[in-house]
Design goal:
The protein contains 1 helix and no strands. The chain is mainly alpha-helical.
C-alpha cells in the first residue's frame, strides 16, 4: 500500500508539474517562433541592404566613368571651342581689313576732292 501511495504521489506530482510547465513550454515555443520570424526578417533585411549597396556601387561606378570621360574630353572640347573662336576672329580680321581699305580709299578720295 505504501508503494501504491508513493506511486500515486509521483503520478500526482508529475501531473501537477506537467500542468504547471505546460504554459512555460508554450511560451518557449512562442519565443522560438518569434525568434525564427525575427531571424527571417533580419535575413531579408540583410539581403535587401546588400542589393541596395550593390545598386549604389554600380551607380557610383557609372558616375565615376562619366566623370572620367568628361575630364578626358574636356581639353578636347575646350580646344575645339578655342579653334572655333579663333576661326571667327580670323574671319572678323579679314572683314575689318576690307573695311579699313574702303575707309582709307574713301578718306583718300575725300582729301583729293578737298584739294581740288
Amino acid at each position: 500500500m505504501r508503494g501504491n501511495k508513493m506511486d500515486n504521489l509521483k503520478n500526482l506530482l508529475r501531473e501537477v508539474l506537467k500542468e504547471e510547465l505546460q504554459p512555460i513550454h508554450e511560451r518557449i515555443n512562442q519565443l522560438h517562433e518569434q525568434n525564427s520570424q525575427l531571424q527571417e526578417q533580419i535575413n531579408q533585411l540583410k539581403y535587401e541592404t546588400n542589393q541596395q549597396f550593390e545598386n549604389i556601387k554600380t551607380e557610383l561606378k557609372e558616375i565615376m566613368a562619366t566623370v572620367q570621360r568628361i575630364e578626358q574630353n574636356q581639353p578636347e572640347d575646350i580646344m575645339a571651342m578655342l579653334q572655333t573662336i579663333n576661326n571667327k576672329l580670323d574671319q572678323r580680321d579679314a572683314e575689318l581689313q576690307v573695311l579699313n581699305r574702303r575707309v582709307f580709299k574713301l578718306e583718300s578720295d575725300v582729301e583729293r576732292m578737298a584739294r581740288l
